[in-house]
Predict the structure of Ammonium transporter Rh type B-like.
Amino acid sequence: METRSSSLRVSLPAFVLIFEAVIVALYAVFVTYDEHADARLQNNHTNPMDNAVYRDYPIFTDIQVMIFLGFGCLLAFFRLYGFSGMVFNFLTATFAIQWAILVQGYFQFSHDGKIHLGVNNLINAEFACAVVLISCGAVLGKTSPLQLLVMALLEVPVFAATEWAVLKYLKINDAGGSILIHLFACYFGLGVTFVLYRPQLNDGHAKETTSYQSDMLSVMGTLFLWVFWPSFNSALTLKGDDQHRAILHTFIGLSASTLTAFALSAMLNKSGKLTMADIQNVTLAGGVTVGASVDMMISPAAAYALGILGCTACMLGYKYLSPFLARRFRIQDQCGIHNLHGLTGLISCAAGICAILVASEEVYGPSLYEIFTHRAPVEGDPRLRELQLLIPGLRPGLGRTAQEQALFQVAAVFSTIGVSALGGVATGFILKLPFLAPPSDDFCFDDKLFFDVPPDYDTPLKLQLLRVVNESD
C-alpha cells in the first residue's frame, strides 16, 4: 500500500471545507439574481415565456448530461479505474462550475459590482467546466483528486481571463468554442502532462487496460456526448436560423465522423476488426471540426466533409502521433485530447477562417452583420442606417473587412494556444507538490488507492496475470 502521504483523510476535507467557506462568503457579497430570477422584477402578470429560463434551461440540462454522464462514463474505460473515472469527474465538475460562476462573473461585473446569476451564467460556467474536464483527460489515472481540484482551481481563472481578453480585444467569431474551449483545454492539458511526465509509463502499465464492462460503460458516455453535442455547439449562437444551422451542421458532422471512424478502425487494424477505443473517441471528432463555422452558411456538404476530415486526422493522431509525442516530447496524453480536441480544433479554426473570408451579403443578406457583428458599419455610417431599416436593433460594428476579421481569428488561435500551454506548464509544477498526494507509478490507474473497493474489483486482472504466469512456466 502507498505511504501515508497519499492519504486524503486530512488534505481533501481541509481543501474542500475551506473552499466551501470561501464560496459562501464570496457568493454572499457578490452574487445576486439576474432580472429573470428576481421576484422584484417579476410578477404574476409577467408572461412566463418572456423569462430566459424557458429559452436556456433545455440547453442547460443537455450540457449537464454531457458533463456528468457523458464525460463521466467516457472516462471509466480502465478496468480498475471506473470508480475514479466517474467519481473524480463528478467531483471536479461540481467544483469547477461553482468556481467558474465567480471567476467569469468577475470579468462581467455590472454597474452595482454584483454578479447577476441566471441560467445563462450557469451555461457559461458549464463551458468552463468542460474545458477543465477535457484538460484532465491528459492526466487521467495519474493524479489524485486533490491534484484535479487544484488543477481546476488554477485553470478556470486562466481560461476566464483568456476568454475575456480574446472576446474583448480580438473580437472573434467562435460559436462552437473551437478556439476558446477545445484548443485552450487541449494545450493546457498537454502543458500539465508535460511537467508531470512519468518515464516508467512510456512502456505501458499492467493496470492500463480495459475490460468488456468498462468499454461498454465508456461507449455509453460517447453516446451521451454524441446525442447532446448539437446543444453544446448551438448554445451560444443567435436564436433562430443561426441556431438551426448549428444543430444541423453538428449532427451532419457527427454522422460523417461516425461512419468514417468505423471504416478507418477496421482498415487500420491488421486483423481487420473494430477497436473499441476508436468508437469511444474518434466518432465524436465531427462535433469539434464543425465548431468554428457551425452557425455560418457553409452548406451541409461542407459540414459532412469536415466530419470526415476531422475523423481522419483524429484517427491517425491516435494511431501514430500520440505514441510519437510520448516518446520524443514527454507528452503522455492519456485520453488523446490532442487528437480529439487539438488536431480537430485546428482544422475547425482553419475552416472557420475560410468561411469568414468568403462570407458576403449575396449569401447571407443583411443578416451577415448579425452573425459577423464586427463587420457591421461603424456608428454614423449611412450604410448602417440602411441596414437598421432592414434589421431593427442592429448595432454598430467596427467596419472590419472579411480579411481583417480572418486575421483576428488567426491571432486568437495562436494567442490562445500560447497562453493555455504556459498556464498548463505552470499548473503542472504546482501539481508536483508532494502534499497534493500524487499516486506513485505502481498505483496509477487503480481505484484501490483512493476508494474502499469490493474484494473482487481486480479479479479479472488477477486471473489474467495468473494465466500469463502459468503459460510462462
